[in-house]
Design a protein that fits this description.
Distance between the termini: 26 Å
Shape: globular
Radius of gyration: 17 Å
Strand content: 15-25%
CATH class: Alpha Beta
CATH topology: Rossmann fold
Largest sheet: 7 strands, mixed
Mean pLDDT: 91
CATH architecture: 3-Layer(aba) Sandwich
Order of helices and strands: HHEHEHEEHEHHEHHHE
Low-confidence stretches: none
Strand order of the largest sheet: 3-2-1-4-5-7-6
Number of helices: 10
Number of strands: 7
Helix content: 40-55%
Structural class: alpha/beta
């Protein structure tokens, strides 16, 4: 199955997490993502959680601190990401290993919760990955960027250097899940924090972007994702 990971993407991610700029951004987004996850799982706790496409472990560290899962597992295609995860010495992490993006070495329904955050937009064969998550997990939390706006051409241009090859609206993301064997329990359109916006765009411009994004989402929640970039997060279970 390893040949399913195209060479261009394998090369892109091989040393992806050695970039200090990427690492700094992921530290900020990890706390945002944890907040988004709490919005769909509530106060639930899980015995075994796997982070699929775990990057360099920022989210795993946030999950470790929050004690949402008793035992954490990490799967990542990048060697630089695996090295960074192991270097964190997380107290709840019991397994950290590479995978090909499509096959997971675990029995059916082994994990109580699978988490895959900002991964699916990078995946060449989306439904293959989603069906494997449906096999190994009792529930799934997945988050993808909502970039299929009226300016999707710009989204494609901006996302290309980071390996974004799939672009979603909330309804398209829901369709991917439902046609891959999942039933959506709860979903939301969410946005990044003020801290993230200011880190990316500067103090003044970041504040302006945050206020505009928040205001539009509050005033016109159905229209907002077609005008500006947000994220879609869903809690699912196998149908």
């Amino acid at each position: 199955m390893t040949e399913l990971l195209g060479p261009a993407y394998k090369q892109l991610y091989e040393n992806y997490y050695g970039d200090p700029v990427v690492a700094a951004q992921r530290r900020v987004t990890a706390n945002d993502t944890l907040d988004h996850i709490r919005q769909v799982i509530g106060d639930s706790r899980f015995e075994k959680i796997v982070d699929v496409g775990a990057g360099e472990g920022s989210l795993l560290e946030a999950l470790d601190d929050a004690a949402i899962g008793e035992r954490l597992y990490a799967l990542e295609i990048s060697e630089s990401g695996l090295h960074a995860i192991r270097a964190r010495n997380l107290s709840r992490l019991v397994r950290c290993e590479g995978f090909d993006g499509y096959t997971i070495d675990a029995p059916d329904r082994f994990f109580d919760l699978a988490i895959s955050v900002h991964v699916l937009e990078h995946v060449e064969h989306e439904r293959m990955m989603l069906r494997e998550l449906c096999r190994v997990a009792k529930q799934l939390v997945i988050e993808v960027p909502v970039e299929h706006t009226i300016r999707v051409e710009k989204s494609i241009r901006v996302g290309s250097p980071y390996g974004h090859i799939n672009f979603y609206s909330p309804s398209v993301a829901a369709n991917r899940l439902e046609t891959s064997g999942f039933r959506i329990i709860r979903s939301k359109v969410v946005m990044q924090s003020l801290q993230y916006e200011q880190m990316c765009s500067g103090k003044t411009k970041g504040l302006a972007k945050y206020v505009l994004r928040r205001g539009l989402l509050n005033a016109a929640p159905k229209m907002a994702p077609f005008l500006l970039t947000y994220a879609f997060i869903a809690l699912c279970e196998p149908a």
